[in-house]
Specification:
Number of helices: 15
Strand order of the largest sheet: 3-7-4-9-10-13-14
Shape: globular
Radius of gyration: 23 Å
Strand content: 5-15%
Helix content: 25-40%
Structural class: alpha/beta
Length: 471
């Protein structure tokens, strides 16, 4: 489907054609994007009233091959857990496909997968927070018209950066007179101030280290680096969450006013929870950047943990680096997902001959992160935060439900960060009750861990049935 830049009108082409112009024929046309999708409808079930779910990964710059081939499509690739998956790749019928509960539409963002952008200022037109949300809103409304699905219960399912897109879409679609029955978030990051980046580059922003601590502790627990390791992960994490939001948060707030004795006490407790040495924690000023944690936890083995899933471990590439320089999980499974999908889409879906499939594109650093939240008269020069969008959407559609999912072993979007940000969603208690939380003993791609795939399928299918009166 073809979509256009934000604020484009479908009369633009008519007006341009009706006006005389001295422009040369080879002048570059206005920007547009073709958005590739794979839609699956369940046979033998009337479409009238049947739920439809729009699914997308994030990045920004990622295609949706991961959710398509690893989670809820009709087939999935068998990738090894905590090991490198080598060819030949095995694709099987997916018993955990969400087709039992909803029709499914997997969408590749502009420029990714088989989607393409063209025209004047094409990157500026589509590669940004608000531009991206608008493109997906256009796509969804076009899809509803093409397939006559306006009366279907509607859901968006976003993973990672796709959660920012999904939360923004809840409001953007309302502006197009489309109400969602539910927003499903996996590994959410709705407020980018919560990313635990380099503390030397962003001093005074301490909350990100507070919300990342439980994930560090879960990782240390998994790799047997916790002192007096308890048997139960959940009770251990409840203890860590309490420490993170009380003693640890207060210590960070004191900054340079923190006494030496208190600094030592906090470092010792951090060491007990994270497996990092007291000396190292004092050197970091008690603030642990996630890439540094990945490299330091198993440094005595010259090993690095995964980013998306810290259960995965690989050899450290540069022992002298400050932070991890690769993600062992991505390297272990990416080729399997992309290789299997390339065969599947060309052989089974009969699409893509002669076209390159782009699993991801390098636009993270050049993405336009400015966002105009509801109530603001212009886009803000700040890290994006779509909590206001979701809050307004919930207030305007109080029957819309939100489902939050996350993995305990994900340091890229820590599970407690997602829980924390939605605790601060500016809605009344009656609407807070519309949000439910589910966490799994897996990483960012919860579905890459087969027991968790079964669990998340059952929970998402149940969520859709409960909120749609689905047929």
């Amino acid at each position: 489907m073809v979509v256009h830049p934000k604020d484009w009108s479908d009369t633009d082409a008519i007006e341009a054609a009706s006006q005389k112009s001295d422009k040369k024929d080879d002048d570059e046309p206005k920007a547009e994007a073709s958005m590739f999708y794979a839609a699956y409808f369940r046979d033998g079930v009337p479409t009238s009233g049947r739920p439809v779910t729009f699914l997308f990964n994030g990045g920004p710059g990622s295609s949706t091959v991961w959710l398509h081939m690893g989670a809820f499509g009709p087939v999935r690739v068998l990738a090894l857990d905590e090991q490198h998956t080598s060819a030949p790749y095995n694709v099987v019928n997916n018993d955990q496909s969400l087709l039992d509960a909803s029709d499914l539409v997997f969408i590749d963002a502009p420029g990714t997968g088989f989607s393409r952008i063209a025209g004047k200022d094409k990157e500026k037109a589509f590669y940004g927070v608000d531009q991206d949300i608008d493109a997906f809103a256009q796509f969804i409304t076009q899809f509803l018209s093409k397939y006559r699905r306006w009366d279907s219960p509607k859901y968006v399912f976003g993973e990672s950066y796709g959660t920012m897109r999904g939360a923004g879409l809840a409001l953007a679609l309302q502006k197009r007179d489309v109400d969602l029955n539910g927003v499903i978030l996996l590994s959410d990051i709705l407020n980018w101030d919560l990313v635990p980046d380099d503390p030397q580059l962003n001093p005074g922003i301490d909350l990100s280290y507070v919300v990342a601590l439980p994930t560090y502790a879960a990782t240390a627990w998994y790799h047997n680096r916790v002192a007096n390791r308890p048997a139960d992960l959940q009770s251990f994490l409840a203890q860590v969450e309490t420490f993170a939001t009380t003693d640890y948060a207060l210590a960070l707030m004191k900054g340079n006013e923190l006494s030496d004795a208190e600094r030592q006490r906090i470092a010792q407790q951090l060491s007990a929870y994270t497996g990092l040495s007291v000396a190292y924690l004092l050197k970091t000023n008690l603030r642990i950047e996630y890439g540094a944690f990945q490299k330091e936890l198993l440094a005595d083995q010259s090993a690095t943990t995964g980013t998306l899933d810290t259960r995965f471990v690989g050899a450290t590439l540069d022992p002298l680096s400050k932070v991890a320089t690769w993600d062992p999980q991505s390297s272990a499974i990416s080729a399997a997902y992309v290789g299997a999908y390339n065969n599947y889409v060309r052989d089974r879906l009969h699409y893509g001959d002669g076209i390159e499939f782009k699993s991801g594109i390098d636009i993270y650093g050049s993405w336009d992160y400015k966002h105009q939240p509801p109530g603001a008269d212009k886009a803000l020069i700040a890290l994006p935060n779509v909590l206001p969008d979701l809050a307004v959407a919930m207030k305007q559609n109080p029957s819309m439900k939100v489902m939050v999912n996350g993995g305990y072993y994900d340091v890229s979007t820590p599970y407690f960060a997602g829980k924390f940000e939605l605790r601060h969603l500016p809605v009344p208690p009656s609407l807070s009750a519309n949000i439910e939380y589910h966490y799994y003993e897996a990483g960012h791609m919860v579905y890459a861990h087969h027991p968790s795939l079964i669990e998340i399928h059952d929970k998402v299918a149940n969520f859709i049935r409960r909120t749609s009166n689905s047929r």
